[in-house]
Amino acid sequence: MNSKWEKFRHHFKQQEVPAKTTLLREGQVSRTMFFIEKGCLRTWVNNDGKEITTQFFFEGDSVSSIESFRTNRPSLYSIESLEPCILQTISQRDFHDTIENSPELRRELEEHLFSRLLDSQLLFYSYLKNSPQERYRELIMQYPHIVQRVPQHYIASYLGITSVSLSRIRNRR
């Protein structure tokens, strides 16, 4: 957890979850923010019964359906653990109180939101401009450890391709 949050540690609760635990379902209002101490989470959407992975998160990342968390609207996606995780959680109310009482953390939240927006835009434009092979290369550069930690079918889903296509791309490297 970021050292700036240390003075607010009393608001956090540690949560240990096994792999394949759904922390938030698409359509629910997000009431919790998760800080990953250990493990990996993914976000995904349901497209007519097919799961499409939208992002991966690892140690040091914070995760919530921030749009839902801040507006009380239903989440556009689900959050699920891919590995056994140790998480630090903060409730929506405690988070809002903390942000209101710390201009420094408010600025950090703004930077975090800007970073998430930038990541989303880069991914969106990558889908428009790059081949699946180029998107895979970008993913490996960003998360070199991902192939050891994330099942291939989730990586393929994230890239918008089948597992068979991903195998072909990996074999070409």
TrEMBL record:
Family annotation (InterPro entries): cNMP-bd_dom, cNMP-bd_dom_sf, Env_Response_Regulators, RmlC-like_jellyroll
Pfam families membership: cNMP_binding
Domain Cyclic nucleotide-binding span(s) in chain numbering: 11-116
PROSITE patterns tied to this protein: CNMP_BINDING_3 (PS50042)
Gene Ontology molecular function, alphabetical: DNA-binding transcription factor activity
Superkingdom per UniProt: Bacteria
Recorded GO CC terms: cytosol
Stated name of the protein: Crp/Fnr family transcriptional regulator
Organism from which the protein derives: Chitinophaga oryzae
